[in-house]
Write a structure and sequence with these properties.
By secondary structure, the chain is an alpha/beta fold. The chain has one domain (37-323): 3-Layer(aba) Sandwich (Aminopeptidase), CATH 3.40.630.10. The protein has ten helices and 13 strands. The strands form three sheets. An eight-stranded mixed sheet has the order 1-2-4-3-7-12-10-11, sandwiched between helices. A three-stranded antiparallel sheet has the order 9-8-13, with no helix packed on it. The chain has a two-stranded antiparallel ribbon with strand order 5-6. α3 packs across α9 (283-302) and α7 packs across α9. The radius of gyration is 20 Å and the shape is globular. Bound molecules: zinc ion. Zinc ion is lined by residues 89, 92, 196, 333.
Length: 333
């Protein structure tokens, strides 16, 4: 056999083996795709449903303006309900791969701990709330004819300004926000966590802030959901910091159209988590950091420990500090 034929056969063999997923980098933790395509996201969700033997239930909650599915993936069947939302802003992607890994780690497998967790909590994830914004790699949904109060003419709406409880979902001009509002009303989560990304900041001690979080800051949120949001914030911060993060408070606004505020008004312990956009070399770390928070919140809800956290500990989380010059700037929430 000539060398060239041998080489061609070997190449074909490698291609087949790789396509079958039979080889993984030895010893290395597998890197997650920070920005799975629309098609790849659907493929992974349906694969999760199949491989979890139905423990992960995948359904579209509706379609975006450009007719892409907005997916809900639900795992567990316990009485405590948790809603995670990722990527309302299309160019803030990293909550999405974290959610896929969370669903995989909770839904696939049947060990004692997994069975226990799934009996205590039901976790529903709106995975990539803004698929059109992802495709266009921008913050907004896709509605170029709109002249939105919040958003950008020629592009679309800022979905995360259109969750106002006073606006009925059917009258919501921002399609995907209406879908999430309706989904929230159907599911009635005790806890609701919204994953975003922010620019880069430095804390008062000179260390970079890797993530920021906040509870509702709009007037009128009842004491019970507000305290729960603070307890969830403390749990998330502790878990993320234990994994090497440096979490601060997020200086968010009090407008009630912001999901963090709206879902607090609607009775959920509602939290915003913002991962700092620290560049490609930190993306795997940031995905893991979001994943840490997803697991910790689910676990602390399942075992009830979240309710014994002192909410005042949230107020003691340090403020975010100053922007790092020349770093990416992003709009809030
Ligand atoms: Zn955002």
């Amino acid at each position: 056999m000539s060398n060239s034929i041998r080489f061609a056969l070997l190449s074909a063999l490698i291609a087949v083996v790789t396509a079958l997923g039979l080889v993984a980098p030895a010893g290395a933790a597998r890197e997650l795709d920070p920005r799975p395509s629309t098609e790849e996201l659907a493929r992974q969700l349906l694969d999760l449903q199949l491989r979890s033997r139905g423990e992960v239930r995948v359904t579209p909650i509706g379609t975006s303006n450009q007719q892409r599915p907005v997916w809900s993936a639900r795992v567990g069947h316990g009485p405590q309900r948790i809603l995670y939302v990722t990527q309302q802003h299309g160019d803030e992607p990293l909550g999405t791969p974290a959610a896929l890994k969370f669903l995989r780690e909770v839904g696939i497998g049947n060990d004692q701990h997994q069975r226990w967790l799934r009996e205590q909590v039901t976790v529903d994830v709106v995975v990539r709330a803004n698929p059109d914004g992802h495709e266009h790699n921008w913050r907004y949904n896709y509605d170029p004819d709109a002249d939105p109060e919040f958003g950008e003419a020629g592009k679309g709406y800022d979905i995360n300004r259109y969750h106002d409880p006073a606006v009925a979902p059917e009258n919501n001009p921002a399609t995907e926000a209406g879908l999430i509002r309706r989904h929230h009303a159907d599911f009635q989560p005790h806890i609701s966590v919204d994953y975003h990304m922010q620019g880069r900041y430095v804390g008062g001690d000179g260390r970079e802030i890797t993530a920021s979080l906040m509870w509702p800051t709009t007037p009128g949120v009842a004491e019970e959901p507000l305290n729960l949001a603070k307890q969830v914030s403390v749990v998330a911060r502790s878990a993320m910091d234990a994994g090497g993060a440096n979490v601060s408070q997020y200086p968010g606004g009090d407008y009630q159209g912001i999901a963090r505020n709206a879902y607090g008004l609607l009775g959920s312990g509602s939290v915003l988590i913002e991962l700092s956009d620290m560049g490609p070399e930190h993306e795997q770390f940031q995905i893991t950091s979001a994943l840490d928070s997803m697991h910790a919140i689910a676990e602390a809800t399942a075992d009830g420990s979240v309710t014994s956290v002192d909410p005042a500990q949230a107020d003691a989380i340090p403020p975010r500090g100053e922007p790092i010059p020349a770093a990416t700037t992003r709009a809030g929430d």
